[in-house]
Amino acid sequence: MNYTIETHHLKKVYKDKAVVNDVNIHVKKGEIYGFVGPNGAGKSTLMKMLLKLVQANSGEIVIFGNKVMENDFEMLKRIGSIIENPYFYEKLTARDNLDLHCEYMGYHNKNHIKEVLEGVGLLKDADKRVSQYSLGMKQRLAIARAILTKPELLILDEPINALDPEGIREMRELFRKLNTDYGTTIFISSHILSEVEQIADTIGVIQNGKLIKEIAMSDVHKYQTDYVEVDVDNIELAGYVLEQEFGIQNFRIVSESRMEIYDLRKDVKEISAVFIQNGIGINGIGRRQNSLEDYFFQITGAEVVENP
Amino acid sequence: MTHLMKLELKKVGLKKYILFSIIGIFISMFFLFAGLNDSSTIKSSYETAFSTVGLIFCFYYVILFSVLVAAYIINEYNHKTILVMFSYPINRRKLIIAKLLLITLLVLFSMIVGYICCGAFIVIADRCWGLIEGEFKISFLFCWIPTALKAIITFCTLGIGTFVIGMIKKSVPMTIISAMVFCYIRQFYIAGMDLYEENWPFVIGVAVITSIGVCYALTYKIGQAD
Predict the structure, then answer these.
(1) How many whole angstroms separate alpha carbon B57 and alpha carbon B77?
(2) N or C: chain B end with fewer CB closer than 10 Å?
(3) Considering the entire predicted model, what is its pTM?
(4) What are the extents of the domains in chain A?
(5) Cβ separation of B83 and A53 shorter than 8 Å?
């Protein structure tokens, strides 16, 4: 298999705590790999290790088929990255920051600066100092900087943080375009699981420093079952009616008024009719599908759904 | 290396450096004039007047060095822009050495200009107001120039010492405080040894300790971006 990134038994310990523990990830060439996990799971640390910003205690990293060595910085020429927050020289303009980036990366096609600024919607603000930018604008500029030198691999740590919905959509399209048009491999972490779901080919789930699952999105979709969600005023009676009238036992009461029915022998229309006949008030009813978020919480065992 | 230094200059610019250099020279001239014009003490000789320049320059330029270290290097760590710098395909040690070399060259140049200006000021002030005992002779320069060079080496070395402390603590206040401490150590040594200026054992001692510190900082303290 042709992998752009591979790690073997990667480990990082901070103050006797393993923040990355025996992690083996496999990012195929040309794919979008979504790296998900709760806060403090070790996502950023692992991304920093890939960029040699943090040294591993043990294990090895293979990027572009070559083992990453301590004093080899050449591979960084082929990588674009965003780590933690969008950091810039605030007194310089956006254009000057990108110009500097080109110089340090040894990339001489500076005409591309205008193109990427246009791509992230910052061309008209290109000559403003970065200190005058909002966080969302800085995030866009960080994306522009990451893609400026047309890297083969993008390592993006929470790249859509602070973006508005329109910005998120634009960046998603930009990443897809880079992936399909230029074959850029993208290793992306995000808290917004619905976004990862829309963009990733493969996901890796990390929790407490351990990679607990690495799975193709096509396989995740197999787990995503359909169900009927109902919101009623008498949940006990609704459960009783389902069992008595339809013989349905495959349902789950998720709150005082809400249940999920996984047995789909009866459709929404029939279920609502029988509820009404039995005097059960219906606040809402509809067909749903498990999302990546459900899958994520199922495998991590987390209970609270957090969305930014 | 030259290219890296040029890029550093592009990032921080020269405006503040030039401003502080000019202010430094004027402050030095002011203190020199105030000292020479003090009627409560006996008239200074050219030797003592020139050693006063060394005293003022020690404080001003070692602190200026530390301020530049803080602005060009330590702030990169504090503002986390070092994460961006370290994602470039350039040896990290080389990046930091380029910064340090640039600071050293800037302070060196400023000190040379400062010594020329203050030396000239002493001579002119004596001509105009007769503040100094005796007359200026060209032969004084054969003493002044080596003294100035030795002082410049010492001050730059002490400045590099502030880089070592700054890298260890990654703290702007510690960097600047270390500059003050180093200046006091120099003054204590000179006063203790009853000298007008530092002697070669002191210069060599400082250079050796600083070199060890620089090696340590470049080996163990560069990569700690977190």
Answers:
(1) 29
(2) N
(3) 0.78
(4) 3-216, 225-289
(5) yes
